[in-house]
User: What shape does this take?
Amino acid sequence: MKRSKSIFILLTVVLLAVTIAACGTDPKAQYVGKWMAVTAESGGTKQNVEDNNVYFTLEQDGTGFVNLGDTSNNVTWEVTDAGVTVDLNGLTFDVSNLGMNLEKFEMTKGTNGELVLDTEKQSTYHTTSYNGMNFTFAMKIYFEKQGE
Assistant: This one.
């Protein structure tokens, strides 16, 4: 009886230790690495964008690097409830053909582990004017983590 009680206490302590260790996982860990833009979707049409050289790298310390075609910069980033927010640290990447001026962008985690940049959900999103007419461009860009 005494041995059964000791085994029960030992198993309880081990289970408690495993539970506490699981709670201590750093939420940044799942996002650290290189993320490549692979697909863009607009108006229900998807297009492969892997050749456009658009990617970002996130480091464990909250810093990183973004490459947007011909423009690149160091960034800072943080985990949010929905995914991550990336701050371009003063670099303004004018994506006028998307109707958006990126300084800071938020990405949500997709159903397959990808990160999704939805232009309509950005705080810097705006409508573009041309010859007195307003155009709003809605696009989603899907980023996949490399090396997994």
Q: What stands out?
A: The chain has one helix and 13 strands. Residues 118 and 140 are 4 Å apart (CA to CA).
